[in-house]
Design brief:
Number of domains: 2
Oligomer: single chain
Strand order of the largest sheet: 3-5-6-9-7
Distance between the termini: 26 Å
Helix content: 25-40%
Number of helices: 5
Length: 283
């Protein structure tokens, strides 16, 4: 009760003020979530992005397949090389009558040391060097070019270098039959004396020479001035690794596409839920 100049008057009725809570956010159902993603996929931006991702996946798949095919080819080459190289050595005449790459052969004769050629640009274990190619004279006058081994470069690459001496007397060489290398056309004319760009018996020994040479694996007597050139190592492991990597890139592209799609759909769902929050009051 309040007292004023006109006498007592009643207190005003109490005023109740209610807070204005919001309705709970509407949860997006799985069906609505799928509708949102489908709606996004029909926009130009997502059509373009999806097309880009599909093109990338196709490219990654093709690159992976190509690496698998290369791995299969290298595996086949390795098996063939190991099979041929493990065969019993045969004579030179038998080998060139039915030439098979890496067929083991045995030849006997005397080296023509004066005709030795150093074959340029033959790195070994990170060092530049030469192949030492010398014709072996057989009793029937046949000249068989032999890759005796490897020697390092001494001094400048443009300077002449003396080849290692040849064994004297009769020599027996066991090695592998190799196809002649292709000499550059025209052959370099500014090379130092006694050096060549490729081991091509038809160029080094004349057009009547057979297009083969022997890569020595063993010599009797043994040569200590050259390093035997080993068979090449064919390993398909790197190609298999690359093939798997391309598949992983494709998987990452799919995962990234799905991640961005779900994130944008989730953001859109959150914005829709915010707009659906309607304030209400109570008297």
């Amino acid at each position: 009760m309040q007292v004023g100049a006109a006498g007592p008057r009643p207190d005003p009725p109490p005023s109740f003020r209610r807070s204005r809570p919001c309705r709970p956010a509407v949860e997006t159902s799985a069906r609505d979530y799928g509708v949102l993603m489908w709606s996004l996929l029909r926009t130009r931006r997502w059509i373009a992005f999806t097309a880009l991702v599909l093109a990338a996946i196709a490219a990654f798949g093709l690159l992976s397949r190509w690496q698998w095919e290369r791995a299969e080819e290298r595996r086949a080459d390795r098996v063939m090389l190991e099979t041929e190289a493990a065969a019993e050595p045969i004579t030179w005449s038998a080998a060139i009558s039915r030439p098979v790459p890496w067929q083991p052969v045995t030849i006997t004769g005397e080296y023509d040391g004066a005709a030795t050629q150093l074959i340029r640009q033959r790195p070994l274990d990170g060092r530049n060097g030469f192949w030492v190619a010398t014709p072996l004279l057989q009793p029937d006058a046949a000249r068989i070019w032999v890759n005796r081994g490897w020697v390092p470069v001494e001094g400048s690459a443009t300077a002449a270098q003396a080849p290692p001496p040849v064994p004297t007397g009769e020599v027996t060489v066991t090695g592998w039959l190799r196809d002649a290398e292709r000499m550059p056309s025209p052959p370099p004319g500014d090379l130092p004396a006694g050096q060549a760009a490729a081991l091509d018996p038809r160029v080094l020994g004349g057009p009547d020479s057979p297009p083969f040479y022997v890569q020595a694996s063993e010599s009797i007597p043994r040569e200590s001035t050259v390093t035997i050139v080993a068979m090449p190592v064919i390993d398909e492991g790197r190609n298999v690794s690359y093939a798997v990597q391309w598949l992983l890139f494709a998987a990452v592209a799919v995962a990234g596409w799905l991640f961005f799609l779900r994130r944008e759909a989730r953001d859109d769902a959150g914005r829709m839920a915010t707009r659906e929050e309607v304030p209400w009051t109570s008297a």
